[in-house]
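Supplementary Text 2. Reproducibility record for the structural model of the 481-residue chain.

All settings were left at their defaults, and a single model was retained for analysis rather than an ensemble. We include the record here because the model underlies the residue-level annotations in Supplementary Table 4.
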Amino acid sequence: MLQPSGGPPPWVQDAVFYQIFPDRFYNGDPRTDPADVRPWEERPTRTSFSGGDLSGILKRLDYLKDLGVTALYLTPIFKAPSNHKYDVEDYYQIDPHFGDLALLKELVQELHRHKMRLILDGVFNHCGLSFFAFQEVLEKGPRSPYWEWFVIEGFPIVTEPEPNYHCWAGVAQMPEFNLQNPAVRQYLLEVVRYWLREADMDGWRLDTVEYLDPSFVREIRRAAKAVKPDAYVLGEVMGTAAAWFKGGCLDAAMNYRLWELLVAFFAEGRLTAEEFDHGLRFLRRSYPDWANYAMYNLLGSHDKPRFRTLCHGDLRRVRLASAFLFTYLGVPAVYYGDEVGLEGGEDPDCRRTFPWTTLESDPMAGELLAFYKRLIRLRRHWDALRRGVFRTLHTQGPLFAYGRVLRDQVIWVVLNNGPQSARLARPTLTLEGQSPTWDLWAEEPLPQGSHLELEPFGFRLLAAAFASKRGGNYEKMAQAI
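Retained model, structure tokens:
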């Protein structure tokens, strides 16, 4: 399938994303806190506020730079009454509890100064009850010029026991737009253009894409690219995203189908390596190559239980899944706190506050953070891990081996997703006529022998020795990262 005009932008293949739920990341300015803000470490409820804001992201920018991420995705930041902001009240105002336009511009400028990007969450399927157009409809009914902005089945409008208007997933607080109305489309498309122009952000993550008319999603993408040709237009797709690429609607999708495989294989151990590989192949073959390299791959998000919790606290499984995420096709994304082992069950528990006060005193968190930093450095250093082709080499029981190849770079990844030590015959790893001779993770030559040894839930990251075009050998390159 040919890549559609205008995307995905080249920078995406080299990105490492970091998702932030702003209310829970860091409270940088207590003066903007909601009146009922809760203590930072208190477990969240569906309605509680913790006080995180844009100032907090700015103040923790050094942490993000040190981690090595290159792009941020923020869940909604526009004015809304909830902590999650998916019930938008004003699409043209930053929520006062988060900051203002000047602060957003400052954040974007600082990110760009450090060669980092920012995408915002676009909630264009529905709004909130307090959105100006719905408020006028509540007051004036069919006499309102905004009556046909929504799909309403009677007047007066009621919310209980069941809304008499279309709303997202039956949630009365989120009335759906009538996207067949050209006036609604034009209003939302101008929102798309406005924030790209005004704040110079770098793209949109489109909420609940599967609820939207594909023709409208295509219009969003075109509007974004018209303002900023290298904007990234990402869709929240829970199922297989093939149709969205055939229609030229999206640059990429949040890879929830991959997430399901990662949970089944790494967290739950329900799949063999062969079954896992079959699922990966199904997804790769469902999408064009250009989309595979731009997919937003995740272990966690604000809509799913924390991966560590799904692993029942077993950090070996977390590390193994993370090693896969950063060595597979697509764009790896870290959900805030996953890099320090934050736990949490279903929403809202998966939206706990970042544990800043315990980070330095918790050895486990420090070790996992160092592990993530190293994975990110390796991915950013080796072109083959970002742009190389994928080759399955071995699948047997819990053992899964694959390669990434790009020009003169040949890298092997070997995973042991089982509780017992394992051995893999070295000839099995022959790829492009070469065998691995260097251990990238241990930063030392690979010992001679007929077998490769793997610890329980362990992995090996290997490479073939070659003279790099960048100069020097692996020993020197290892020192550079």
